[in-house]
Design brief:
The complex is a heterodimer of chains A (432) and B (398). By secondary structure, chain A is mainly α. In chain A, 69% of the residues lie in helices and 0% in strands. Chain B is α+β, with helices and mostly antiparallel strands and 398 residues long. Chain B is 47% helix and 12% strand. Chain B contains 16 helices and eight strands. A three-stranded antiparallel β-sheet of chain B has the order 1-2-3. Chain B starts with a helix and ends with a helix. Classes of the chains: A mainly alpha (432), B alpha+beta (398). The interface between A and B is medium-sized, with 31 and 31 residues.
Chain lengths: 432, 398
Amino acid sequence: MPNFIMSYLDSKEALTPGSAGSQFWALIYVLIIFAGVSVAVIAMNWIERKLLAHFQVRLGPMRVGPHGLLQPIADAVKLMIKEDIIPAEADQLVFWFAPMIGLLAAFTVYTVIPFGPSQAVSDMNIGILFMLGVSSLGVLGIVVAGWASNSHYPLIGALRSSAQMVSYEVAMGLAVVSAILMTSLNASGTGTLSMIGIVQAQQQQGVWFIFKFFPLGLIAFAIFAIAMVAETNRAPFDLAEAESELTAGYHTEYSGLRWSLFMLAEYAAMIAVSSIAVTLWLGGWMRPFPNLLHAPAWDFIFSLFPGLTFLALAAIALIGVARMPAHSFFRIQRIGLAVFAALLGFVALLLLVIAVAGRSADMSVAGRFNDGIDHVYWFVLKVAVFMYLFIWYRATWPRYRFDQLMKIGWKVMLPISLGVLIVTAIVGVIFS
Amino acid sequence: MSAYKNDQTNDASNRALSSLDRSNLDLKTPDKTYLDSNELIINMGPQHPATHGVLRVILKLDGEKVLGTECVIGYLHRGVEKIAENRTYTMFAPYVDRMDYCAAVSNGLGYCEAVEKLMNVEAPPRAQYIRVILTELQRIASHQLWLGTHALDIGAMTPLFYTFRDREEILKIFEKYCGARLTTHAFRIGGCQYETYAGFEKDVKNFLTFFAPKIDEYEALLTTNRIWLERTKNVGVISGADCIALGVTGPVLRASGVKWDLRKAQPYAAYSKFDFEIPTGENGDTYDRYLVRMQEMRQSMRIVEQAVDAIPEGPIMGKVPKVIKPPVGEIYHSIEAPKGELGYFIVSDGSTQPYRLRVRPPSFVNLQALDLMVRGLLVADVIAVIGTIDIVLGEVDR
């Protein structure tokens, strides 16, 4: 094996490839994350449609593949072969470029998201600043798209979303600052802006920041949780694409692949902001009670969770196979679902084998692999909770009006987040 | 007018409209506004997800603020009133179902009663009870459809599916009764064509027990929902006096505090025999209209319950000649349709076809109030107000 591959694997410290200076592994990580996020977005598409359908007493996609499992793929193919329309009056170049901006912003954020202590592309020392800065570039894509369409509804949608995203960025930023303040409550008295550092600070202080200085951390988290829904233009703050008002908002004139890029960017941004929330307040990659239940036996039990989760998914799929009508019409679907269940079961088996093989927490390859899977698992699980919330909000709530949205942003969220920040600072000084 | 005068002290119908002033509204040319930005003139509709069909509203906007609106209608015009002049009275009856296709039964009731009044015949009691039951079920179905679409316009997707699920039960009863779900043609001039099927009473009673908790379910989703309150309270306010001046009727009028319901004011069919209340609102805003309609569904259930329990035996068809030939004369008869006062003005020249038939559609008249209600509000409110007026374009355009 060439040195540039092995040197990173052989290093004794858990570092991100970026920090270790291994460009090869950084590239591999980038590819993995890009593919992973794309798959997650496609999966989200199916999950959202299914969940919404079940909230709304209907079945959702059922025709393409067993239980509509292949629906996202069918959608993707449909979008790709669709006619690509650029309106005659549109600004061609900008119209073409706009979806890319949003997508770039949404995906660039993932460079600093820590799926584990070494499971990130790079550990930037200004990680959170970088993240907020890049993610707020996403609004540029929307504004430009609305303007380039040269049409009234997209223009109004774009103006709404720019005003909305800018307003909520302020409250969001202040909430983030109060979490960063908490990272400085250690012996040296210096905090950190590094995403990995923030999680490690929670580990050292032995508490997720959501529970720190109760209820200060909780309030800051709540502010962030609301602001991030507004930031990603999701219900009940989906004014920019309110279909009952502005037909489709800023992407009214878009179709086919270009439109799907907007969707990809939106879902990628949702996952990104959820990742920030998880990192800042919910202990990032840490499993529950890492300090309370720290015996190796507990480590082992918790490391079984990923495998067990996949085992449960496989069992659900098998139940689906069993519940399918016996008619020969469903034969292919039944076989397909059985294969899918077998695939899930195989993954589960693999994960369980790794968990058993790497149970001694050493720096062996199996051990590091096991740790890595653990970290990613808990991180993804926490993010998934937020994803579920996003869908739940959408199914439950009506949409806010533009002026009400602004009122909440500036008159409610901003003062509260400012107050929380000040009180956190004072309490922090008293207790340190 | 009598019931109205009992409730109000001054004769408001003669008063000038308090706030409707169209003199300074020019939808053709944009003016310069704040910071030299142009006013925006946009078309909402005729193809738009939230205009409930093919309504086209020209909006004059200053940013998001609505300076004025103009409704352009006629995209669904089929000339129903002219068709009536070339059809016999019997042949025309199914056409009225196509006006307000969300409340076909109510339309049919109004038409049949108008012709009966012209011919001076009366439907037998059993037919009248069947008419009341079906019409009130139709009112519930119409309000369900309104609730679902209105909530969807405001951004709550889920109530739409719940209301459609529950509306299905009513449509099943219609289907069992007369074979059709939407454009039912349930009644005939002089009574009903069909006897109730075996198990009709049971089906209706089952529906009542099924539906009572469902209204609570809708209300749990919306009535105290903060966002719903913010989106509907003080939005699209219209005073009782303005309603009367514009001829606005139905739940919109009642939500503005005017206790006017033709079922009580000029009882038709068998309505005088039932005990029910007329829900009214106070503020005349979108939220009050929502509450009034929710209450109306409960009151309709009360009426249906009483009617099913007391349904008399007997014939279902009155003494009507085979060929319907009303005497020379004219008649105006109106009923309380789900959306407001639905009136039929029929001029007969003694032949088998009406000389002139004019429909007073509640949606068309109520739609006039849109401009008054949305001036100065935001674009999102226009959608909410269109939804709360509860228009059906088939009826607006006829």
